Hints:
This protein is α/β, with parallel strands linked by helices. It has helices at residues 12-24, 39-45, 51-59, 83-93, 116-119, 164-179, 195-208, 221-230, 242-253, 294-306, 311-326, 344-354, and strands spanning 2-8, 31-34, 62-67, 97-103, 123-129, 141-144, 154-157, 184-189, 215-220, 237-240, 263-267, 273-277, 329-330, 340-341. The strands form 3 sheets. A 10-stranded mixed sheet has the order 2-1-3-12-11-4-5-10-8-9, sandwiched between helices. The protein starts with a strand and ends with a helix. The chain binds 1,4-dihydronicotinamide adenine dinucleotide (NAI) and magnesium ion. Catalyzes the oxidation of 3-carboxy-2-hydroxy-4-methylpentanoate (3-isopropylmalate) to 3-carboxy-4-methyl-2-oxopentanoate. The product decarboxylates to 4-methyl-2 oxopentanoate. Its cofactor is Mn(2+); Mg(2+).
Amino acid sequence: MKIAVLPGDGIGTEIVSEAVKVLEVLDLKFEMKSALVGGAAYEAHGHPLPESTLQLAKEADAILFGAVGDWKYDKLDRPLRPEQAILGLRKHLGLFANFRPAICYEQLVGASSLKPELIAGLDILIIRELTGDIYFGQPRGRRTAVDGHFPGAEEAFDTMRYSRPEIERIAHVAFQAARKRNKKVTSVDKANVLETFQFWKDVVTDVHKEYPDVELQHMYVDNAAMQLVKAPKAFDVVVTGNMFGDILSDEASMLTGSIGMLPSASLNSKGQGLYEPSHGSAPDIAGKGVANPLATILSAAMMLRFSLNQEAAAQRIETAVQKVLAQGLRTPDIWSEGTTKVGTAQMGDAVVKAL
Ligand code: NAI
Ligand code: MG
């Protein structure tokens, strides 16, 4: 089991060290190799995603990624910015399926901005298509308008597009994930206005014929945004396109309290995956030893489950995290009166001890 470890910038190095500690104590045979990525790679090699890092990632069964970015790189040309590293990895490895579970741990119910009864026991999975949609569709650009409301004016345009195979493969991923859960998929679209998403709805409906045991619901994205805060527990698996998924998954993340708790997985058709916390490099707290490492540790659990076929070990990590929370240990982002404030390394050590 080859793991490429790419800590990156800011808190990336601090939180990835804790996840590596946790993996090492599992007594499984991993081959872990680290490489620089993002700003750290730019400093050393002049590029955020050096060929050697990309090669290591391609040869690995799974990638454990921290975070990239820092305000000090804002003035660099776009291709040299740290964030290009994560976009490059997604593109080169064909990572089209982004899994973002939003789980509200019993011990953290009070940390959410929603009423406890709405989110207690919450366990939903947002699956976002990651390589298509308006984010990548061509043509795009700026030009002088020849028609529309203001002919002759400067205008910008992007193209929303999805092909049948792109929708089919993400729909299969969603139905298969639902089979292992509560057998319900909500496909989110805007079919009432957009042809791309009428097509999305039609293709998801076609794929559903192969999964008669799974319930399929279609929902417009505006309603989905509302339902997520009104009755989030009514969802099980949510599948949607790149842009709607970007927005809805951030919304869902806040249901659970802190972004420091949220893992993610991005998978390709070979089962290879990149696993990273949902948050960024948090330059405001980097180097202080206070970042919450649990999102990264839970991402390592997802890695064991999805790419390394180690379900039992994944569950062991998840149980250990709950145990540590039950002991009352909290990094500052999830701390509340009556619990014990700990730093990044102490939290990692506690998970290791619980294991
Ligand atoms: P961020 O997620 O890094 O931070 C947002 C807020 O959440 C900050 O106040 C931060 O301190 C806090 N936070 C984040 N992770 C935390 C953790 N584990 N424990 C405790 N608190 C935590 O987002 P922001 O500030 O918008 O971006 C900072 C940099 O990260 C930027 O350069 C951005 O481009 C990059 N970024 C990178 C991502 C990636 O590597 N996949 C994803 C998102 C942002
Ligand atoms: Mg986002």
